[in-house]
Amino acid sequence: MLVIFGASGDLARRKLFPALYSLHVQQLLPRPFLMLGIGRTQYDDEMFRAEVMKDLDLFVPKAAGEHPQERLCFANSFYYQQLSTNDGADYARLAARMEQLQRDNELPDNVVYYLSTPPALSQQIPVFLAQHNLHREHNGFKRLVIEKPFGSDGVSARALHELLHKHFEERQLYRIDHYLGKETVQNLIVLRFANTLFDTVWDYRHIEYVEITAAESIGVEKRAGYFDSSGIIRDMIQNHLLQVLALAAMDPPQQFDSACVHAETLKVLRGLRPLSATELQNNVIFGQYTASHVRGESVPGYRDEPDVPADSHTETYAAIKLYLNHSRWYNVPFYLRAGKRLPTRVTEIVIHFKRCPHPVLGTLPGALPNQLIIRIQPDEGVLMTFGLKEPGGGFHVKNVSMDFHYKDLAKTAIADAYERLLLDCMSGDATLFASGDAVEACWDFIDPILAWKNSSARLFGYPAGTWGPNEADAMMARDGRTWRYPCKNLAADGDYCEL
After folding, report:
1. How many domains, in total, are found in the chain?
2. Residue positions annotated with a catalytic role
């Protein structure tokens, strides 16, 4: 049984129900299976199923050859229970309803609770579940899925984990980061460790520096209230980008199971070198987008967005240069950047290899260091650049690329991250979920950066539709390096760049 708190909310409607439907169509859901939606809205089962059908019509395009009754069959596995999250009597009724549904549908006592709720309720709901023994494992498992944010700083994150551990064991907790569920993030592990070509050169002897970019072309949309209290550091870098960095930098795990992968990524995150006062000044850039014209349309600045204070100092862009206390990555800088209202939506990792060490060939005209670009979204895939001799006299090097698009490997559309993560949780595989220790390690690195931002850091403006403040380029230029400016299409060759 999957119990979704916040079942009438946006995340459930746009992401969870479509993901569950896709798993249903592929016959990947466990049998028997039912979903119990929890919310404040006054629905009965039939009304809730009708809403689910509307959501599927809205967010899931009908597949060719789909049976007309397929969606109805899926919706009929949904049930609903109205509940006030701070009313103990409602949890008693929930316990009785769950017991009845399990009995009527001959379900085993295996339950996944999914908290698709505001952050404050992530601390409230587990307590009430425990008070009514809904967390106890008798003849099956009980698992709890929590959405980010996992606290707003290290202190609140530890307080949340302490509260959760009073009622649930760590093995029962699944902290979901949808970035880790993306196929291309998972493919990073295979790319690194299943290919001698990359595994043998994945260290400081061969790699000059690493870029990780998460760019969004949109502004804050309808999330201004949440975003202004968090900023891009908390929203993107503290969780998504540091978790991606950990997978990119970790040593090979002894086995590919959740315990071994978590152990290796935790070593990386605990090895994030704290930034000194000088490094905070020179290696961290904060920006906020200003009004501009993008593709012929007028775009407001961040402070002109609805529900954003006119004097807001919330960062919509951040760039960080950091190092790892890790023998594999001795003196290799990692450059992280994330921002809103940038030219295009793209997330990627760029591995910049060192120049060819050959005293002659490495200095030929046109010779450039190799790059490996791992595109997480969109146009998922991998691109590698290398040098070849240009036809004709002399030895002039032409930089060319070899690219692979993930869609060419998949026989069907690439699965949404929530499909994989929901299935993994129901199967008991926590590999692609964040551990409590990893979350705390991320905050240990980020907290001093946020403290400096709130005390004396400058906030630089950048016109909407550009790649961020000039100061971020200057930070790279001081090191004799440049950012890669990606296009929406992975295999951009300089002649065509779709934004």
Report:
1. 2
2. 240
